[in-house]
Amino acid sequence: MQQRLEKYLQLCGNMFLPCFLFVVGLFTYLWSSNLTFDDGLLYHKIFLICNALLLLIFINFNQGCIAFSSASIFIVYLLINYLKKQNGIAMLNTSLFNNLVVLLPLNLMVFYLIPPRRFLEKKSFIYLLLLAIEYIVVEFLSRCDIAVSWRLYDINITALGAFLLLILLALSHSVSSGNIYDYSMLFAFIAVGLGCYLAANPIGLSLFFGVASVIFLTMMVYTLIYHYFYDEVTGLYNRKSYLRHARNLPPKYSLGIIKIDSYDGLHKGLTTRQKNELVALVIELLQTKLPEDAVLYNYSEAEFVIVREKHDMKEMYAELENVRRIIAATDFMLHKHPIPVKITVSGGVAEKKRVDNNTEIVFARAEKAMNETLKFSGNIISPVPRSARH
User: What is the distance between the alpha carbons of residues 342 and 281, in angstroms, rounded to a whole number?
Assistant: First the structure.
């Protein structure tokens, strides 16, 4: 019950920040009767500043997950502003505007489903080329007065349908994953859709496109900070967090290391999704079977460190031995894998001694015990405490 409650709280927490930013923008618009041209100019500047900061993040941290979604929104924003300046409210009937508001959600859908992991990679250059070709085609169609739209009651039904499909897709992913990335994309997409619908409004376009950019920027900053302390795939404390926490451990503690046996072979035989799913299932078993006060770290891709304060080596050994037996007896069912996967884990345990000057010595002792055993056999927790030997 407690774990289920913690999961729901985590889901709500991931949804809170993007939802809050969107609601602030929505209420600002609803109270916009007193807003002036200067207010609209302020939202315009916020949009430009957020996109400039996003570009710096994309370049400095080589992050590409929302790079082209952000670029698509930025390009459409500039083009709609150009049309508004040239045609005023009549821009709503131009072919270019109607083509843009149909193309934008389709591009966002593609970049959401298959985003580049890095800003500077081969896929990014392909996306850049496709964007250039798309806008050349859109410009050509618009000059020929050809619009990909079907209007009903003065509403572009084609664009509305594309945005609804995009939002439903993001909503489905958000409910499934519960992470801040999907929730941020969901509320940013809603904001962009409202911005396109209210494009002729004096502040509608700049306000809601600005909200989308603020959501993107907040999500990127949060993600960078989160990944500094936590592992990106598993969500556990990472090696940096372990090294930082290790400086403040009490005089008495035990340390254990768990490593998936023959992981290189599993790595070659499984897809990335199956590999991540397997690791997630192993972590779930560890979190379920280990005591609540055990702190778990993702030290490397298939190696985990467990720290228990004020506990001796015998207790740590018994807990890891229990986990080892459970994992060895478990059939892991993975996505699209024809048969259950059987794995084993090995580990090492060590206890802080009075003569140990730092945590590195304790960790090295546990790792040495594990590695010496792995030379001959796997599926073993080492060393066995003397009191547990027969």
Answer: 12
N- to C-terminal Cα distance for the chain? 39
- Cα angle at 316 between 261 and 353, to 5 degrees? 110
Q: What is the DSSP string of 158-209?
A: HHHHHHHHHHHHHHHHHHHH--HHHHHHHHHHHHHHHHHHTTTSTTHHHHHH
- Give the rounded distance of the alpha carbon of 174 from its chain centre: 11
Q: Structure pTM? A: 0.81
Is the Cβ–Cβ distance between 207 and 195 less than 8 Å?
yes
Closest CA to 254 of 305, 307, 293: 307
Instruction: Please state, in angstroms and rounded to a whole number, the distance separating the CA atoms of residues 159 and 153.
Output: 14
**Of 111-115, 151-155, 319-323, minimum mean pLDDT range:** 151-155
Give kind and range of the element (H or E) at residue 346: strand 345-351
pLDDT value at residue 12: 64
Integer Cα distance of 17 and 156 in angstroms: 31
Both structure tokens of 372: 């010496």
The per-residue pLDDT for 189 is 98
Q: Is the pLDDT of residue 5 over 50?
A: no
Which residues share a beta bridge with 152? 155
Please indicate whether residue 383 or residue 220 has the higher confidence score (pLDDT).
220
pLDDT, tens digit, 9 for 90 and up, residues 216-268? 999 999 999 988 999 887 889 999 999 999 989 998 999 999 999 988 888 77
Asked if omega into 18 is within 30° of 0 (cis), the reply is no
- DSSP characters over 318-335: HHHHHHHHHHHT--B--T
Q: Cα-Cα-Cα-Cα dihedral of 289, 295, 299, 304, to 10°?
A: -20
Which has the closest alpha carbon to 83: 6, 196, 214, 166?
Answer: 196
Cβ within 8 Å of residue 369, ≥6 positions away: 348, 349, 350, 382, 383
The token pair that represents 122 in the structure block: 């081969």
370/383 Cα distance (integer angstroms): 8
Nearest to 64 by CA among 249, 228, 220, 286: 220
